[in-house]
Amino acid sequence: MFKVIGTEENPDPDALKFVLNRPLVEVGVRQYDKARDASRDPLAARLFALGGVKSVFCKGGFITVEKSPNRSWDDLIPAIIKVVEEKAGTDKF
Fold first, then answer.
1. Does 74 map to a domain?
2. What does pTM read for this prediction?
3. 79-89 pLDDT, tens per residue?
4. What CATH number did the domain enclosing 56 receive?
């Protein structure tokens, strides 16, 4: 089971790194700059479906999400954590 064990700020205030308890991506990276690019990745597609998500980057044991400037992290953080913890362990990548 995947758990989000913390978050880390980035120089960009609209991007936030979600640190996981174990690696999600064993080799390489998964990067999506548009929702349509994530159509084959159920986890990334669910993150984009939250609304206001501009990009998703996954590498090793973290996921970085960039949001639209008009969205609040107060609303997105709990929703992102829920999606990650529900979907990360159920999908094949």
1. yes
2. 0.91
3. 999 999 987 65
4. 3.30.1370.70
